[in-house]
């Protein structure tokens, strides 16, 4: 094996180096680097895409084996239209079954035009957002679903009711338990859209 | 159309199916609970509106203007 010692890697016809190596061995990249045909290894940083699921006119969407020991916390992005004005709701899952115990404590803050209301409820599921029939969107950070701790969800929803209304909700599943999946469903009618799940990397 | 889409993220297997009997029962219970929650919320809101109207009327009888009442009642 031999070692090529240099500080710059540059194509003869390029105006400047594509890779510059400093004395510590760090590499600085410039320009466009196409890794589309490569397999990149190493611990990914930041948000890591896990799954995208599209669905059409269904009453319920369940994701199994989406929460694993790979990540502690997750981001769920949902965009959807609905057949009826209805809240969008979740249940945690394990081994392919919903957890329907009355263990979901939810605090909600709903803003609808100039009306603001709040409520805390305990039930067998938890509402993430209100929703209209046009395009709705929400983000939900899900904390500790797989670890045997209390699971927390912090959600912010943009409802298409009256074009734009908003719902901020937090949920505690107040029984420390491990879940590997989640079910998303409207309280009435059907939904059409996309769910994307990402894992938050804790770093290398 | 199927009631449920179930995805196994680890394997990529996608199942589209109708509710099981248990899921259908849970669905009906969820809908009933949502309807009852809305009925309760509407009743609470009606009570609040009536109480506010009563309070506004009593404050007006004391001589407060509409603007003054607005500073007292949120």
Which features would summarize this protein structure in a list?
heterodimer; A: 204 residues; mainly beta; eight-stranded antiparallel beta sheet; five-stranded antiparallel beta sheet; 16 strands; elongated; B: 74 residues; alpha+beta; two-stranded antiparallel ribbon; 2 helices; 2 strands; 65% helix; 12% strand
Q: How are the secondary structure elements laid out?
A:
The complex is a heterodimer of chains A (204) and B (74).
Chain A lengths: L7 E2 L9 E3 L5 E3 L17 E12 L1 E5 L8 E10 L5 E7 L2 E2 L5 E9 L2 E9 L2 E4 L6 E8 L5 E11 L5 E13 L3 E6 L4 E10 L4
Antiparallel strand pairs in A: 1-2, 2-3, 4-16, 5-15, 6-12, 6-16, 7-8, 7-11, 7-15, 9-10, 9-14, 12-13, 13-14
Chain B lengths: L3 E5 L5 E4 L3 H41 L4 H7 L2
Antiparallel strand pairs in B: 1-2
Neighbour order of strands in the largest sheet of chain A = 4-16-6-12-13-14-9-10
The low-confidence runs of chain B, each spanning 5 or more residues with pLDDT under 50, are none
Largest sheet of chain B: 2 strands, antiparallel
What portion of residues of chain A is helical?
A: under 10%
Strand content of chain B: 5-15%
> Assembly type of the shown chains?
heterodimer
Structural class of chain A comes to mainly beta
Give the biggest sheet of chain A: 8 strands, antiparallel
The secondary-structure class of chain B comes to alpha+beta
Radius of gyration of chain A: 22 Å
Helix content of chain B: 55-70%
Low-confidence stretches of chain A: none
Number of strands of chain A: 16
Query: What is the number of helices of chain A?
Result: 0
Q: Outline of chain B, from the CA principal axes? A: elongated
Run of helices and strands of chain B: EEHH
Global shape of chain A? elongated
Strand order, sheet with most strands of chain B: 1-2
Average pLDDT level of chain A? 92
Write down how many β-strands of chain B occur, each being a DSSP E stretch of 2 or more residues: 2
Distance between the termini of chain B: 48 Å
